[in-house]
Design a protein that fits this description.
Layout lengths: L3 E6 L3 H12 L5 E4 L7 H5 L3 E3 L4 H5 L6 H11 L6 H20 L19 E3 L3 H15 L3 E3 L4 E7 L2 E7 L2 E10 L8 H7 L1 H4 L6 E2 L8 H9 L3 E2 L6 E4 L15 E3 L13 H10 L3 E7 H6 L25 H9 L3 E4 L2 H8 L3 H12 L21 E11 L5 E2 L6 E3 L5 E7 L17 H26 L1
Parallel strand pairs: 1-2, 1-8, 2-5, 8-18, 9-15
Antiparallel strand pairs: 3-4, 6-7, 7-8, 10-16, 11-15, 12-13, 13-15, 14-15, 17-18
Helix pairs in contact: 1-6, 1-15, 4-5, 5-15, 13-14
The structure holds flavin-adenine dinucleotide.
Flavin-adenine dinucleotide binds next to α1, α2 and α15.
């Protein structure tokens, strides 16, 4: 086989964006190798929410925003503990990436949504969620002449004279002038999770990863072959979850009361999940949901009455965990404690009775909520039977430990120098998604934006080599 200009590993949003961008920037032959039998990876499973600043849909909604303001918010939220050059490039190009997806046929709901606790809304939701996002982009990729080969797991990178020179897949050598690693995360590999995400594995058997089963962390091997630097220890978004069944639930109902092991509240329960993660982490990673039988009856009310964040296509979705049938089942199974009095509940759950009672009395009081929760979500916990369920930061949504990259998407070595011919983008990279999840859409936004950047850089560098 002739040498391919740009070879992309993985067909999620990052890999598809990289391939399309490479063709647009002069690469004549572009191939995607995908390990799975179908394309899309975790991107296909996603809610299709994407974050960016200063894009057409945002301007049409009358919202003024800028890459600079996004960058400041992003870095401040993460106390600057990130790769500034890469984050700056992400913020600068995030809006253009969303416009570019629209130009290539991806459909978004026109209404802007808040992804987290940002000052101005920066997110849009794909019509038909991740499935439509992947299918529309894949259509554009194929129309641009890119070959997408499924069922081809890349085993290793060919490294010659310190540069990436192709890959080996299914025992076959495939030579390429540039290789873009877009192989996603490693949540399906318990050994890698234990090594890179000790906070997650501390949740024991409760912990589960929601992404694709092919997120096996092959990129750690690729990074070793290239001599790349790995960054981002113990990062990855974790959601509060009970030990019921493995169903994905990003937001908790706003009427819940969340207490720590001392029986004290520590956060506004209607806050974005990135905030709930950090505050629960500070409280030992374990907490209890406390509610009464009236809350159970209310749980069948529409989503808009119980959640601060409501995304298009999810307005009528009921909570998979906090609905009457599931609650009855879990009380029966002993995973939700129940008692006629708060003192009895505290004893059953192993919480300090005097403190829990004081917490609930204060919560039921008419004064403005001490955690700042909006009055519409505050409902008294007043009539037994009362319930308590333990929750942990048990749902891992994505991983964020991986090769460091420059603002051009080049993989760097342990001295911070770009490795010729080697690029990476999306969930596989480290240093861009931080300790604080800036909000829904951050990960798809990063994948699409850096996919577009890495594909462009790869094509430009290949054409510069050809003409040298
Ligand atoms: C249920 C769910 C909901 C989510 N919702 C959102 C959301 O709304 N917004 C948001 O920002 N984030 C969301 N996320 C996270 C987000 O979807 C992912 O982090 C992002 O899509 C990752 O994109 P990617 O292209 O980097 O990786 P992926 O989409 O996972 O693609 C990587 C691909 O590489 C392939 N691959 C792996 N190893 C190899 C190999 N050796 N050779 C060849 N191919 C290989 C995989 O099979 C996979 O297809 C969600 C995740 C899930 C699971």
């Amino acid at each position: 086989m002739d040498t391919i200009d740009v070879l992309v590993i993985g067909s999620g949003i990052a890999g598809l964006s990289a391939a399309l961008s490479a063709t647009e920037n002069g690469a004549e032959s572009v191939v995607i190798l995908e390990a799975d039998t179908e394309i899309g990876g975790s991107s296909r499973l996603s809610g299709g929410i994407i974050m960016g600043a200063d894009f057409k849909l945002q301007r049409e909604a009358g919202i003024e925003d800028s890459a600079e303001s996004f960058y400041r918010d992003y870095m401040n939220a993460n106390v600057w503990n990130l790769n500034p050059a890469a984050v700056k490039a992400f913020c600068r190009e995030s809006g253009r990436a969303i416009d570019w997806l629209v130009d290539h046929g991806v459909q978004f709901h026109p209404a802007l949504v808040f992804g987290g606790s940002e000052n101005t809304p920066r997110c849009v939701a794909a019509v038909g969620q991740g499935g439509q996002l992947v299918n529309s982009l894949a259509r554009a990729v194929r129309e641009a002449g890119v070959d997408i080969v499924v069922n081809h797991r890349v085993e290793r990178i060919l490294v010659e004279d310190g540069r990436a020179a192709g890959v080996v897949a299914d025992g076959e050598e495939i030579r390429a002038a540039a290789v873009v690693i877009a192989s996603g995360g490693y949540g399906a590999d318990r050994r890698l999770l234990a090594e890179h995400n000790p906070s997650f594995t501390a949740t024991g058997d409760w912990g589960w990863y929601i992404g694709t089963g092919t997120a096996r962390g092959d990129a750690f091997g690729f990074a070793e072959q290239l001599g790349a630097q790995i960054v981002g220890h113990d990062r990855g978004l974790r959601l509060l979850h009970p030990d019921f069944v493995h169903t994905f639930e990003s937001y908790i109902p706003g009427w819940m009361v969340l207490v720590n092991k001392e029986g004290r509240r520590f956060v506004d329960e209607s806050a974005p999940y990135g905030v709930l993660e950090r505050t629960t982490h500070r409280n030992g990673g374990v907490a209890w949901f406390v509610f009464d039988h009236q809350a159970v009856d209310r749980s069948t009310a529409g989503r808009t009455k119980a959640y601060k964040q409501v995304f298009p296509e999810r307005e009528e979705r009921q909570s998979p965990n906090w609905n009457p049938a599931m609650i009855a089942e879990q009380v029966e199974a002993g995973r939700i404690h129940s008692a006629g009095t708060l003192a009895g509940l505290a004893e059953a759950a192993g919480l300090p009775a005097d403190r829990l009672q004081a917490t609930i009395e204060s919560y039921n009081d008419d004064r403005p909520d001490e955690m700042g929760k909006d009055a519409q979500f505050v409902r008294p916990v007043a009539e037994g039977p009362f319930y308590a369920a333990e929750v942990r930061l048990a749902t891992l949504c994505w991983t964020a430990v991986g090769p460091a990259i420059t603002g051009r998407g080049e993989i760097t070595d342990t001295l911070g120098r770009p490795i010729p011919g080697a690029y990476a983008c999306g969930e596989v990279t480290g240093g861009i998604l931080g300790d604080v999840y800036v909000g829904s859409g951050n990960s798809v936004g990063n994948s699409a934006t850096f996919g577009r950047i890495a594909g462009r850089s790869a094509a430009q560098d290949v054409s510069a080599t050809h003409s040298a």
